[in-house]
């Protein structure tokens, strides 16, 4: 009998470590979990505890002292297949059903949420609070930092390279930015802005940047001289040094940039490289994307300062800027340069200042026309000297970064008029998309009838010369009208149709051109 009891005890003792290990496995703790991006700075996750009974999320709510803290009952953790709803909360009222807590003097309120249990094998979730729109994408459950593929050619960039600095001084032109958000997924809401504080206009330019389905983006910005701009990606900001008339390609680690902007994770990611560069000012930009400061940029600023040490040069620049600032302020209200404006510009000492003001005037006019074209017809002109293969590039150049539909038509063409009417519901459906509609006709459309017809047609309208009409039709095989060319956001011809193919086909083509 004693032997039997001893055997049972030994068996229990042998199984005990396995049982304890099983109990340990059932509870998993993730401290300061990484994430891919977030659209809010008002909530951050400190800890996630996963068990078979619940998923506990310890978080911090940020706000002004005394503000009421309430969480919507429509809050959940979600994966591609399942949602795990909020069940309970501590230190915060769910939907105001209990007396709400207030943000303390520190501006931070520690709260705890309990969600339905997440099965093992799930590696990341999104935190979603529907009422306020708070979303934290790609919260990690099994690794500290989200995995992002970084191409080998970026990682193998040479070290200790002597920086090639741009020439200091004025050099007005358009800086071009192409880029990719590494780690981006189409489910993520990403707002991007390229911001530039002007040295002449009393304005900070904020250019909206569209992110394509593959995470790519394109932006162009007028600049008076090489300078630092800021790329905002949701709540994170990346400083970029741009050079007018030059192009840079940026590969942004979306998780690292986002986590470096987090109060809880800033110390860990602040000095990690958040973007890689190919093109203008690589060394400066790599340093800015790693530490936020740049030794190479300091060298450039010293060279720039040396250039303007001459009293005569400083005086001339100051005089030119004082002469154009009233003009620039007025252009923000009415971007058309008057004859008096052109006289002021002609008398400037520095050609680059004149060129920059003229360029901004053209850009502002174009933006106004593009905005106006969505509500009414805008008549545009093309220089009669532009011919042959130069015609289409000139037509689409101002709209680079947007999808373009080019409609070949004529006032006497019944099917053309019918297809334009059939397109109205589609244009309303795609109103939120970044699409420009350009209509081309030739001299066979009498000018007075053409202008009268445009009262019913929104978009950008060109009436080409006979030679231009024949050239562009010949170059793109336009053998009859109506005809359509679909141009993608990067300026490539995506599709062509002779005859109206139907609104459904054009919708697919335009979506592909604007998003892919």
Automatic annotation (TrEMBL):
<dbReference type="InterPro" id="IPR017937">
    <property type="entry name" value="Thioredoxin_CS"/>
</dbReference>
<dbReference type="InterPro" id="IPR012336">
    <property type="entry name" value="Thioredoxin-like_fold"/>
</dbReference>
<dbReference type="Pfam" id="PF13905">
    <property type="entry name" value="Thioredoxin_8"/>
</dbReference>
<keyword id="KW-0201">Cytochrome c-type biogenesis</keyword>
<keyword id="KW-0732">Signal</keyword>
<feature type="domain" description="Thioredoxin">
    <location>
        <begin position="371"/>
        <end position="516"/>
    </location>
</feature>
<dbReference type="InterPro" id="IPR050553">
    <property type="entry name" value="Thioredoxin_ResA/DsbE_sf"/>
</dbReference>
<feature type="signal peptide">
    <location>
        <begin position="1"/>
        <end position="22"/>
    </location>
</feature>
<dbReference type="InterPro" id="IPR036249">
    <property type="entry name" value="Thioredoxin-like_sf"/>
</dbReference>
<protein>
    <submittedName>
        <fullName>Redoxin family protein</fullName>
    </submittedName>
</protein>
<dbReference type="InterPro" id="IPR013766">
    <property type="entry name" value="Thioredoxin_domain"/>
</dbReference>
<keyword id="KW-1015">Disulfide bond</keyword>
<keyword id="KW-0676">Redox-active center</keyword>
């Amino acid at each position: 009998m004693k032997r039997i009891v001893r055997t049972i005890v030994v068996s229990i003792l042998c199984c005990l470590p396995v049982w304890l290990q099983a109990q340990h496995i059932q509870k998993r703790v993730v401290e300061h979990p990484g994430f891919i991006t977030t659209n809010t700075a008002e909530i951050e996750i400190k800890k996630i505890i996963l068990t078979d009974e619940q998923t506990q999320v310890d978080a911090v709510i940020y706000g002004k002292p005394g503000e009421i803290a309430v969480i919507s009952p429509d809050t959940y953790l979600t994966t591609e297949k399942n949602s795990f709803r909020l069940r309970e909360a501590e230190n915060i009222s769910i939907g105001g059903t209990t007396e709400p807590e207030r943000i303390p003097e520190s501006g931070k309120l520690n709260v705890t949420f309990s969600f339905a249990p997440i099965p093992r094998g799930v590696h990341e979730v999104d935190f979603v609070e529907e009422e306020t729109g708070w979303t934290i994408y790609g919260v990690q459950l099994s690794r500290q930092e989200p995995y992002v593929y970084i191409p080998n050619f970026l990682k193998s960039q040479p070290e200790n390279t002597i920086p090639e600095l741009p020439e200091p001084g004025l050099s007005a032109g358009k800086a071009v930015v192409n880029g990719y958000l590494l780690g981006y997924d189409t489910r993520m809401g990403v707002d991007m802005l390229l911001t530039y504080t002007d040295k002449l206009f009393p304005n900070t330019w904020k250019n909206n940047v569209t992110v394509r389905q593959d995470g790519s983006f394109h932006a162009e910005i007028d600049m008076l001289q090489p300078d630092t701009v800021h790329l905002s990606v949701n709540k994170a900001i990346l400083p970029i040094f741009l050079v007018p008339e030059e192009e840079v390609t940026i590969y942004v680690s979306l998780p690292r940039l986002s986590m470096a902007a987090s109060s809880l994770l800033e110390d860990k990611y602040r000095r990690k490289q958040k973007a890689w560069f190919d093109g203008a000012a690589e060394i400066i930009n790599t340093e800015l994307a790693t530490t936020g400061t740049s030794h190479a940029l300091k060298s450039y600023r010293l060279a720039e300062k040396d250039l303007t040490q001459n009293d005569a040069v400083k005086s001339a620049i100051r005089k030119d800027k004082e002469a154009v600032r009233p003009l620039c302020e007025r252009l923000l209200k009415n971007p058309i340069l008057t004859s008096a404006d052109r006289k002021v510009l002609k008398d400037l000492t520095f050609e680059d200042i004149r060129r920059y003001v003229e360029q901004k005037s053209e850009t502002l006019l174009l933006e106004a026309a593009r905005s106006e074209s969505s509500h009414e017809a805008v008549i545009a002109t093309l220089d009669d000297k532009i011919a042959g293969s130069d015609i289409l590039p000139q037509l689409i150049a101002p709209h680079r970064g947007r999808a373009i539909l080019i409609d070949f038509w004529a006032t006497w063409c019944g099917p053309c008029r019918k297809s334009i009417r059939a397109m109205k519901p589609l244009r309303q459906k795609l109103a939120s998309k970044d699409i420009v509609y350009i209509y081309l006709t030739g001299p066979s459309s009498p000018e007075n009838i053409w202008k009268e017809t445009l009262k019913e047609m929104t978009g950008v309208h060109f009436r080409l010369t006979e030679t231009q009409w024949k050239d562009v039709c010949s170059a793109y095989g336009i053998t009859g009208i109506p005809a359509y060319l679909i141009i993608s956001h990067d300026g490539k011809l995506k599709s062509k149709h002779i005859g109206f193919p139907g609104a459904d086909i054009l919708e697919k083509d335009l979506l592909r051109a604007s998003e892919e």
